[in-house]
Amino acid sequence: MIKTALVWFKTDLRIGDNETLVKAIAQSKEVIPVYCFDESHFETTEHGFKKTGSFRAQFLLESLQDLDVKLRELGSGLRIVQGKPEVEIPKLVQEYKVQKVFAKREVAFEEKQTEKKVELELFKLRCEFETVSTSTLYHAEDLPFSIKDIPDVFTNFRKKTEKDATIRNPFEAPTKINSPAIPAIDLPTLEALGVTKTTIDSRAVLPFKGGESQAIQRLQHYFYDTQCLSSYKETRNGMVGRDYSSKFSPWLALGCISPRFIYAEIKKYEKQFGANDSTYWLVFELLWRDFFRFMFKKYQTKFFLYEGIKSEKVNSKSLNEKLLSQWMNGTTPSDFINANMIELQLTGFMSNRGRQNVASYFCNELNMDWRVGAAYFEEQLIDYDVCSNWGNWAYLAGVGNDPRGHRYFNIEKQAMDYDKKKVFRNLWLKD
């Protein structure tokens, strides 16, 4: 048993099913929960967009506030620092004489680099560093293949995983945390983070608010209050309203709720209301999240390259500022694309159907470098998740995991199929 452990929270902003926290409590006499505002997350990328836009920054602040409240109920609290994690975390290790740091394990390139830098600095201080895999439905160790042998086609991955692997039970939330006195939470303002405050448009599918409490409330609403889960498969391609899909993605992206917790709730729901294609389909969608995360483990930096994980180049490297501006601002010749892009700009959210169409339009009709589109989504999306975003964009650009090669959406046909009466377009295109 060590005296003091530090838990470095990142995109696992929850108390429930958080193995990192559970391990730290089990192995130490006192725990210091910490969140570091990594200055690199608020920089402008090489594509000219901010890494974190207004909606996600606001959602992050709300999530941290909620986490602090939950930690204080257990006798602890959240210490906030700002700067480079490899500088700030070691400083706290020295301040509190920490013997071990626990953190969520990363898979994407930049996040891995930061993790390595922190580990190196902790090694110099003779402080242990343990990372724990907390983001997926299936644990990497339980997969029926090694990471390098994971099938590149989702269907093959899914079938074998469902047949040969089991999903672990979620961890119980701790009931008490021993901590030294943690000062009252001191969150930076949006301005201090270099982000302009924006209010979510009233037409938004949901007034998204960050935090584990809100995530559980949303699950309660979607599963038990409305039983919308039972018709999820039929409605999931919707575009208007709060309940056509689960809308869990912003909370999943910041780890305010875990896929395993959701899975356990689906199983409970099925016992109460019956299992059907729809209850399974939500698990199927969670598996897609896993798949992209494991693909990032397998291919590392390749998902950020123009040719993706393919060797032959299929899309264009060109960039036309005028066309890019029309796409971003919803002033293209296509009213269906415009409505989706205006929704994204004013709310930080877009339906799955919309995302596939605007990405296809960007890559195929405008024929521009897909990575610029992905980088714009990174700034705008309230539910940005590095693996899902870049994995999906590469997929639609024909340089990712799509077994059919270049996938092309007929935008007019899609608009007819999914917005026949123009309800969605009229909602977003009216002045």
UniProtKB/TrEMBL annotation:
Its cofactor is (6R)-5,10-methylene-5,6,7,8-tetrahydrofolate; FAD. Keywords: Chromophore, FAD, Flavoprotein. Residues 3-137 form the Photolyase/cryptochrome alpha/beta domain. InterPro entries: Cry_DASH, Crypto/Photolyase_FAD-like_sf, Crypto/Photolyase_N_sf, Cryptochr/Photolyase_FAD-bd, Cryptochrome/DNA_photolyase_1, DNA_photolyase_N, Rossmann-like_a/b/a_fold. It comes from Flavobacterium keumense. This is Cryptochrome DASH. The lineage of its organism: Bacteria, Pseudomonadati, Bacteroidota, Flavobacteriia, Flavobacteriales. Pfam families: DNA_photolyase (PF00875), FAD_binding_7 (PF03441). May have a photoreceptor function. Belongs to the DNA photolyase class-1 family. Binds 1 5,10-methenyltetrahydrofolate (MTHF) per subunit. SUPFAM superfamilies: Cryptochrome/photolyase FAD-binding domain (SSF48173), Cryptochrome/photolyase, N-terminal domain (SSF52425).
